[in-house]
Amino acid sequence: MRLICMSHDEQKTSRRPVKAARLDRLPPYLFDELDKAKKRAVEKGARVIDLAVGDPDLPTPARIVEKMKEAVGNPTHHRYPGYVGSPSFRRAIASWFKVRFGVTLDADHEVLVLIGSKEGLGHLPMAVVNDGETVLVPDPGYPVYENMSLMAGAEVRRFGIYERTSFLPDMAELEAAGDAKLMFMNYPNNPTGAVVSAAFFESLVGFARRRGVFVCNDAAYSELTFDGFRSPSILAAEGAMDCAIEVHSFSKTFNMTGWRVGFAVGNREILKALAQVKVNLDSSVFGAVQEAAEAALGMRYDDNLRAFDRRRSIALAKLREMGCHFFTPGGTFFVWARVPEGMTSMELAVFLLERVGVTVAPGSGFGRNGEGWFRVALTRPDTEIAEGLERIAGLRLWTS
Ligand SMILES: Cc1ncc(COP(=O)(O)O)c(C=O)c1O
Asked: Which atom of ligand 1 is closest in space to residue 141's alpha carbon?
């Protein structure tokens, strides 16, 4: 009876908070200000060129789409797929890995299909880290590592990646980081475009084994590298199968961000723990998508590479012309460039949007060490990239 008599406001204040306290562990969403500025610009009728978002404009290759059309009619795929991925897809992944990286994998225990690499990266801390144990994450870095570690109750310690080390971790800093259960690495690297040699993975795995840390290398951009460079796998390093996994994606290699398919490979105990989380949470990837992704593994992906390489050249030439310092990316479809003196990266991003209708990602969104930098995504047509950077050049921000 009392409830019925309560005013709407009284009812609101007597309710428990909806949001779990866990969500308060997440750092503030830094792109909020930028999202609002973009909305305002679009409402005012500006033709905004978006060089902030890492989602390729190019379509998935026709052969993969055709395979999907064919597979979607197969009634077997209309039922739940197996939890860890179809045996045929896992075998294809193991074969591709052998050819591409020279690493032998047991398709039954060392390959796990993911609903996009983000899903596996996000659930990994829940699978291997206890409350209060430490996870090491790169700064700047893809925010999922830190945020999902915090959600899993872990302590997060960031390690810097710096221009002076070509955006590789400083091993002395890692050595001094103290005890940790899990460490995320990401090469080829978002947001900097840095790549690493096989020798780097050798020394990293040596460190991880000495210190008893598990390592996850996020290799979502492994196939997007330039100038003939082939990105190595951490799993090729001596002893890596004892302590490491690597996460791969179809999103970037084949322009399949919407399809949601990737895989994790490596240490079987880590994968078993991750699979245990997933069994309770999802029922894997639609079988037809797995069949199409399996076909993709047998394809060459040079066209895509050529497109991003061409766009990289356009962007680097424009940045050079305007006197903006940048890091030459060895991989990914990003360019990491310096903010002009006297501005924060967020101030620059909002300024560019308001003045010339171009969005870039402010470096501070990727961590404290990202301040002073901004990220240009090459995921728009060549002409738009050129026009966007031309508009920025017109402001003469780096020449004063
Ligand atoms: C470094 C990195 N890892 C993983 C992902 C997630 O990719 P997906 O979930 O589409 O495989 C992204 C997406 O932008 C990324 O930049």
From this structure: 1
